[in-house]
Design brief:
The chain is an alpha+beta fold. The chain has one helix and three strands.
């Protein structure tokens, strides 16, 4: 079995207002790995703007490293 798993999730920020419109996808990724016996070891984020794009909103890339428990 793998000792570590690395996942990336892209979160699109809402065009108006604050906060992510899809935090449930981040939560699901974490819970799915926990159900497989992994715990979140490290998470990093990087953001990029999308000015001029229809539908707008910034994007945040979350890179998560999960470590097998036990």
């Amino acid at each position: 079995m793998q000792q570590y798993v690395v996942l990336q999730v892209i979160l699109k920020e809402k065009m108006w207002g604050a906060g992510s419109g899809n935090l449930p996808s981040l939560e699901k990724a974490i819970n799915d790995q926990a159900a497989k016996g992994y715990r979140l070891h490290t998470i990093t984020t990087a953001s990029s703007g999308s000015k001029g794009v229809i539908g707008g909103g910034d994007r945040i890339q979350a890179t998560m490293v999960f470590e097998r428990v036990g």
